[in-house]
Design a protein that fits this description.
The structure holds three protein chains of three kinds. By secondary structure, chain B is α+β, with helices and mostly antiparallel strands. Chain B contains 17 helices and 20 strands. In chain C, a hairpin with a 4-residue loop joins strand 11 and strand 12. By secondary structure, chain C is of the alpha+beta class. Classes of the chains: A alpha/beta, B alpha+beta, C alpha+beta.
Chain lengths: 388, 492, 310
């Protein structure tokens, strides 16, 4: 009998009404109760309270959760699903039901930027000579050698993260330029803070996530500067340090974290009537921006002055299937979720899709979606000589 | 059978001792027939508070033919079947009794055809109610039945339960919006009932099938009426300092010859719970709020809205607000439709009742329900379709307390009697399921029930389709037979 | 607040049940307006009348309970006092007859269908017992919908004795107009017409509702052609057809003769009778079993063919 270490009170908030079902990407794909938040919670309840043995099917049920947390805003009872599934997965890893040691190896690199960049180069080469499976999402144009981001002042931190800094540094450059346009001196966190620990937490490596978060807090506590994040996944994780660690210090830290769009939206007024780029842009809401940070509207606010048309997808922010490392571990489900999203995108005439999360960008780029970070679009608009 | 299945079979990894399961796998595929303990457990209950049943193999068909094959195999092995949609039923209708094959229709979820000239949409039963209406927006139409669970419940489930919803006051319930059904009878035979013609030939089997809670067969294709979306909608929110004032306003509106699209009442407790979830600006200090919606052409809605305002003020409304924008309207409705789920903020368990009483007795009945709750020391909340007298008293409790469930069921029974005494019925939209079987005798005579059973028998002579539901024990044909347990240990 | 007893019906029905009895072949006659519609009664069948009278009418509930032998004219007069009506068509017949036949009113789009109006029925079974089905409120999912099965069953599975019907407010204004506008266009442009009739050339439109709405609807239509106010719709040919609504735009007059089609509904009144297609096999099985269940001795309206039993 396994103690999942979940609070009974939290589990009991779920009344099994099922309103979450259509907001769950894996239920949408499969129509199966075991692949729904309600089914997963039901299993947690039974394992925790009625000593139900943990079968392979139960492990599958938990393991197929993308942790997009689309079910949370849909839940009228306020079930804290995210923390329930994180705790469950953490226990399952601890009890060796999930994530055998060899699968934990990639997580080791995330906190070691030099190694990560070294392996990135190997991967770039491997991909070029077709040694990697196609499902391995990786940008085509990673340079073999790239200069680090330079500090331009001391007004705000720009959180650069792990994989994103190694693979999508151009996006950070755009973010940095946009902030500088708005008059902020930017300190990129760079190698000093290599990783936020979000991927660890989602995979069930909760202790690693806690260790990392403590390191991050310590490194950024020499001042009270706002910490801006252009990755929705990292931003959500940083904002939840307070919850993860449960300390005052962590709570204070989380209060300093802003998604870059929130910040830019607050400071847009310094721009005077910019000319718009003549493009129509579909806004794809990353789950951790929409369901966790609930700051997806900010993306629309900041894009609106710079582009001709903004288009919303009529799918209630259903997950695209990227989910951090999910697309690696559950490729079939990830690509089915993506098919649904891509069908929605293709049904609308558009020039480019804007997504504020590196994972979604990579996942959707893989099937030929023309996708950019909102900051890249704004950067482009500004570089075309738009008046400030 | 897929190559993989054949391979598994060849290397001796056949999955179950039970030849019934093996045949089901043969007909579908190993991926779409689950028989492990975890999956069976997950399909052994619905959204109701009743004890779980005992599911047999869980099948996920994707075609009509597969459903037909499942039914034929079940017939061959004399095993019961239970169809299941999204599992949002509140009366236990989809709880499997007697280890039936559970047929989950969620993978049959395609919108097949929109035929504007015939004003019909052909859908598979697993299509989610709200998905259809969203899909129809581009044509200027919608599917009128809108149960509060519409964002998740399936149209097949709506057919089985003859689902209602707030807007059924003016439009009528599911029954009025289903034109034709392709059904698989329990012996595997297919029948097409109803039709696009206004007066199809023969007996109205479609009318009998709708609301039969899965006991007459399984529908595999549904032709639903689509309704033109009116150009103007007015949503009014009336606040009252007493529930009686709100209830009397409802009666007065109907008596004045206005049939609004919807008339919904929420009491103070539920309004507070809902407001903290949606933040729609519901007045948290009002004893009762009445949500009224009129729709149609712009002049008519203006006339009716102002008439309703007058009636409201005359009956003691303390404040009347009109939704200014579509967003505000949507938010108000989101509050109303998520009301039940929002309860968990107050107590860990709830029992959601469903009875109907004549509109004019609403106020009296609500007072009596309050008395019952007080006597049993339970918290009761009221949120209901006032326009058609459909009450939904919610009893809040914590099931972990000793003797609590018995208390709740006893209070529930009293509420049912109060409703019947007032001239009402047992259920307005949740159905009978296993919840209210025992009370059918109070509304119907033995002969009445016998005739209902004859209807059942004509469709399902062996009573293998969702056995043990709707009709009370002693009135249902061979249910007892069908409920005989499968030999122990067959699934290890 | 008195206590309602659901199981003890009107004593008048007891007498009627006794009259029906448990043995001889029997049928009810209303005003015989559709008497030959579903075949001819076997000779030797006793023909009786159902009791009449309004049992209970509560306008604020929008519900009326009426004995089957009541004429629709009488019912309508009673309801009109409270500005209400039902969806049952008044063609000179009785309430029980209208339900047993199940044909909708000319204004089907505005008034609703007969089957949707029936909330509860009391019928006499082939054993001579009073059976209640449905419920006395506007919304009800308590048990099986036997009452739906009775609508259009021509007295072959039970003899209707009493009906509880949903009523509706009579709209404050109404108007008939005649026009040459394409009927399909008319149907697409109007929100909730009460009836659209078309004889292949002329379109008649019946509008109901608040006067300003009717005026607005006419204005909408006026953009596509001229409208003439008329007192009533066209004369209807004798034979009734039932077709999918989309088929109405391409009727073949050599099959049908002169016709008036109810656009959006699918009913057509024509010179020639409708030819029936082959019945659905599964449906046939169920209908036969139903007849077997409800009237094993074939004593209820013998000779009438509704389902496909012989």
């Amino acid at each position: 009998m396994v103690d999942l270490k979940i609070g009974i009170e939290e589990l009991n908030t779920c009344v099994q009404c099922g309103l979450c079902l259509p907001h769950c990407p894996t239920f949408r794909i499969t129509g199966e109760e075991a692949m729904s938040p309600r089914g997963r919670i039901r299993l947690m309840q039974e394992i925790q309270m009625n000593d139900r043995p943990i079968t392979k099917e139960a492990v599958d049920s938990f393991d197929t959760c993308i942790q997009c947390r689309g079910c949370e805003p849909a839940c009228p009872s306020g079930v804290p699903y995210g923390s329930l599934i994180e705790q469950t997965k953490s226990t399952l890893v601890e009890k060796k039901y999930l994530l055998p040691k060899w699968q934990q190896i990639p997580f080791f690199f995330l906190t070691r930027p030099r190694l990560l960049r070294f392996f990135t180069r190997l991967l770039v080469v491997a991909k070029k000579i077709h040694l990697l499976p196609n499902r391995f999402a990786m940008p085509e144009n990673i340079p073999i050698w790239d200069k680090p981001l330079r500090e331009s002042g001391n007004d705000v931190y720009l959180f650069t993260g792990c994989v994103m800094d190694a693979w999508q540094r151009e996006t950070h450059r755009s973010s940095k330029r946009v902030l500088e346009h708005l008059g902020f001196g930017v300190t990129p966190t760079g190698d000093r803070i290599p990783c936020c620990g979000a991927l660890h937490d989602h995979a069930g490596l909760m202790q690693s996530a806690k260790d990392i978060s403590q390191k991050v807090i310590r490194s950024l506590s020499e001042n009270e500067l706002p910490i801006l994040v252009d990755s929705a996944g990292c931003g959500a994780a940083l904002k939840e340090y307070g919850h993860l660690l449960g300390t005052d210090e962590a709570n204070r830290f989380s209060a300093r974290v802003f998604d870059i769009h929130e910040w830019v939206a607050e400071h847009l007024d310094v721009l005077q009537s910019p000319a718009k780029l003549p493009i129509s842009v579909i806004v794809q809401d990353p789950c951790h921006l929409r369901h966790v940070q609930e700051s997806h509207e900010a993306v629309r606010l900041v894009l609106e002055p710079f582009v001709e048309t903004l288009i919303d997808l009529n799918d209630d922010g259903l997950c695209c299937g990227a989910g951090g490392a999910f697309s690696l571990f559950q490729p079939a489900l990830a690509s089915q979720a993506r098919e649904r999203k891509v069908a929605g995108i293709r049904a609308q005439s558009h020039d480019v899709v804007a997504s504020a999360n590196p994972g979604c960008m990579l996942h959707l780029q893989q099937v030929g979606v023309n996708i950019k970070h909102p900051m890249e679009i704004i950067d482009e608009a500004l570089s075309r000589g738009i008046q400030i | 059978m897929s190559f993989l299945d054949r391979f598994k079979k060849a290397i001796g990894r056949t999955t179950s001792q039970d030849p019934f399961v093996a045949d089901l796998i043969e007909a579908l595929s190993a991926e779409r027939v689950h028989f492990d303990a975890t999956q069976r457990f997950l399909h052994s209950h619905d959204a109701s508070v009743f004890d779980e049943g005992n599911a047999g193999p869980v099948c996920f068909p994707i075609t009509t033919q597969e459903v037909q094959e499942i039914m034929q195999i079940a017939q061959q092995y004399s095993r019961p079947v239970v169809a299941r949609g999204a599992g949002t039923g509140l009366a236990g209708g989809a709880i499997p009794l007697g280890e039936p094959a559970v047929i989950a229709m969620t993978k049959m979820n395609k919108i097949l055809e929109i035929d504007i000239d015939n004003r019909v949409a052909w859908v598979e039963p697993g299509v989610i109610n709200l998905d259809l209406s969203i899909h129809l927006q581009q044509y200027g139409y919608h599917f009128a039945p809108d149960p509060s669970s519409q964002q998740v419940c399936t149209i097949g489930g709506n057919v089985a339960n003859n689902s209602g919803g707030p807007h059924c006051l003016a439009y009528g319930v599911t029954d009025a919006h289903v034109l034709a059904l392709e059904v698989i009878l329990p012996d595997g035979e297919m029948a097409v009932i109803g039709g696009l013609e206004p007066e199809p030939e023969g007996l109205d089997l479609r009318g009998a099938f709708i609301g039969s809670e899965g006991t007459l067969g399984i529908t595999t294709k549904i032709g639903v009426r689509i309704t033109k979306t009116p150009p103007d909608v007015r949503t009014l929110l009336l606040s009252f300092s007493s529930m009686r004032d709100a209830a009397q306003t409802v009666s007065a509106v109907i008596a004045a010859g206005i049939v609004p699209a919807a008339m919904e009442v929420m009491d103070q407790r539920i309004t507070n719970a809902v407001e903290s979830f949606v933040g729609a600006g519901y007045p948290i200090d009002a004893a009762a709020v009445l949500l009224v919606e009129v729709e149609g052409l712009i002049d008519g809605t203006e006339i009716e809205a102002s008439h309703i305002r007058e009636i409201g003020f005359k009956h003691g409304a303390t404040n009347i607000r009109v939704a200014d924008s579509e967003q505000e309207r949507e938010l108000l409705w989101k509050g109303r439709k998520t009301a039940f789920g929002a309860i968990a903020q107050i107590a860990p368990d709830y029992y959601l009742h469903d009875t109907v009483v004549p509109r004019s007795s609403l106020a009296d009945v609500l007072e009596k329900i309050d008395e019952v709750a007080e006597r049993y020391e339970l918290i009761v909340m009221n949120v209901f379709h006032a326009g058609d007298g459909n009450l939904h008293p919610l009893l809040l409790f914590d099931a972990r307390e000793e003797g609590m469930l018995e208390k709740v069921h006893a209070a529930g029974a009293e509420i049912m009697r109060i409703s019947l005494d007032a001239g009402g019925v047992l259920s307005g939209e949740h159905g009978i399921g296993i919840e209210k079987q025992a009370y059918m005798n109070e509304l119907f005579t033995d002969e009445d029930l016998n005739h209902q059973n004859r209807l059942r028998y004509a469709f399902d002579p062996d009573c293998r389709s969702n056995p043990g539901k709707v009709l009370p024990a002693g009135h249902s044909c061979a249910d007892i037979q069908a409920l005989k347990k499968v030999p122990e240990g067959i699934w290890g | 607040m008195g206590v309602v007893d659901h199981k003890n019906p009107d004593p008048v029905l007891n007498d009627f049940a006794y009259e029906v009895g448990p043995t001889q072949p029997i049928a009810i006659a209303g005003n015989r307006t559709c008497w030959e519609l579903s075949g001819t009664l076997n000779s030797g069948t006793t023909v009786i009348s159902a009791p009449s009278g309004i049992v209970d009418y509560r306008p604020e509930e929008m519900i009326v309970t009426v004995r089957a032998g009541t004429t629709i004219k009488d019912l309508d007069e009673c309801l009109a006092v409270h500005k209400q009506r039902t969806s049952l068509p008044d063609r000179g017949g009785t309430v029980g007859g209208a339900i047993a036949v199940g044909h909708n009113d000319l204004q089907r789009l505005g008034k609703g269908s007969v089957r949707d109006a029936v909330l509860r029925l009391r019928y006499i079974s082939s054993e001579g017992q009073i059976i209640t089905c449905g419920g006395p409120v506007v919304k009800n999912v308590t048990g099986f919908n036997l009452h739906k099965l009775m609508v259009g069953s021509f007295g072959t599975i039970g003899l209707i004795a009493e009906a509880t019907l949903r009523t509706n407010p009579i709209p404050p204004a109404q108007s008939w107009v005649k026009t040459m506008i394409d009927p399909k266009l008319v149907f697409d442009k109007l929100l909730r017409p009460s009836a659209i009739l078309w004889d292949g050339q002329t379109t008649w439109v019946h509008l109901e509702g608040h006067l300003p709405d009717i005026t607005a609807q006419k204005k909408t239509l006026g953009k596509f052609g001229t409208l003439d106010e008329v007192a009533h719709g066209p004369e209807l040919p004798a034979n009734r057809w039932s077709l999918p609504p989309a088929d109405l735009y391409q009727l073949d007059t050599s099959d049908i003769g002169n016709f008036v089609a109810s656009i959006g509904v699918g009913t057509v009144w024509a010179d020639l009778p409708q030819k029936k297609g082959p019945p659905d096999k599964g449906k046939l099985i169920i209908e036969n079993r139903l007849k077997q269940q409800f009237d094993p001795e074939n004593r209820l309206s013998p000779g009438r063919k509704v389902g496909n039993w012989s």
